[in-house]
Amino acid sequence: MRIGLVGPGADAPAELERALTMLLQDASVRHVLYLGDDDAVDPLVARWAGRGLDEDALLSQAAALAVNGSPDEIAALLDADRAARRPLAVRKLPEPPSRAIEMLDRFIVLGVHDKAVLDEDDIASAHIIVYGKSDGPSLRRFGPRSFFTPGPVRSGHVGYLSVEPNGQCEVSIARLSGNVILRERLAAPSAKVVVTA
């Protein structure tokens, strides 16, 4: 299970499209969270949605290709299906003061553009805080909490959060070329016990 992370990109539309395309072509990415506080992804998502095949046309072509299709034709149809679903996999942060909350296996991931708006309760409730407002990529650990940003997309980086079969979360930073430049494992969260009198 993997989530892609893209930093703010209003000032770098070409890099933003490249970053989203790279992450969405990774079959293991469940969805991509855009960490900007703007609408820069909206035109891309609208353009991609306009290129998609409708469900009936896709099923009709799939049935015909299952009987008489070549491997290349079937691969092209699968690519078209992935492209049609691509807009559904891009998520934006909600308007402030709201925050995005994701469950990644046992990890609670809190997404926000500017981490300065978080209060003590926000931070205490999350295992990983992902944010967009920064000068570059960063991963900082404070006790059981981690703060992670891929940095603005103009810095040429994207991020991943992945859960491994052993229950650990892996945080990665990759260049837009796909080369991973940082990989860190975070321990599985411990159970919280609350005792009341």
Task: Describe this entry's structure for a reader.
The structure is a single chain. 28% of the residues lie in helices and 30% in strands. The protein has 197 residues and is α/β, with parallel strands linked by helices. It has a six-stranded mixed sheet with strand order 3-2-1-9-10-11, covered by helices on one side. A five-stranded mixed sheet has the order 4-5-6-8-7. Helix 3 runs antiparallel to helix 4. The termini are far apart. The mean pLDDT is 87.
> Which CATH class is shown?
Alpha Beta
Compute the gyration radius: what is it? 19 Å
Question: Mind telling me which CATH architecture this is?
Answer: 4-Layer Sandwich
* β-sheet strand percentage: 25-35%
Number of beta strands = 11
